[in-house]
Amino acid sequence: MKGGNFLLKNLLKGFIWLLAIVAIFIYVKEKVDVDYYAWLKPLSSRLGLIYLIFIISEVIFGIIPPELFMIWAATKFTFTGFVFQIFFLSALSYLAGILGYWIGAFLNRSLFFRVSKKRILGKYDKYLFKYGEFLVVVAAVTPIPFSGISMLVGSLKLPFNKYLLFALTRFLRFFIYAYIVWQANILY
Fold it and tell me: Of 102, 121, 172, 188, which is most buried by a Cβ count within 10 Å?
């Protein structure tokens, strides 16, 4: 399969990252005798602020791992609320990717984009030329910066309809990771 090893390697990195975050979460929840939610309470009760931070993070190359927002949702909501939050967060991430596509399409000749491409996204250029739109799927389901890849795809003006279709796999990542986070939260 075209890019199979590349996908598997990055999926493995993603699951290792997820397991590390979940292991830390479980350890803190079980072993650390502090109210580890106390410092989050002023922030976690303000949903609009949480969503704003999430969107900014997703547009700016995923500075804050989405799994941390999943943990927040798992500790704050019932199962139904958690599922809604995961769907909403994955939709926001999908929309952030679309915004990234259009940033790449419209700002591809700007100094900002050239510097970002050279310093941050340059290492993914070769993968985009090697794997084409398949790189969107890899970025959607792995820790590769989804918005950044979306910007690259947009800068090359690859077909928007294809981009939208491949980017839907972002929902798959969110729901698989969220399932693991939810199980860790209720089991420990």
Answer: 121
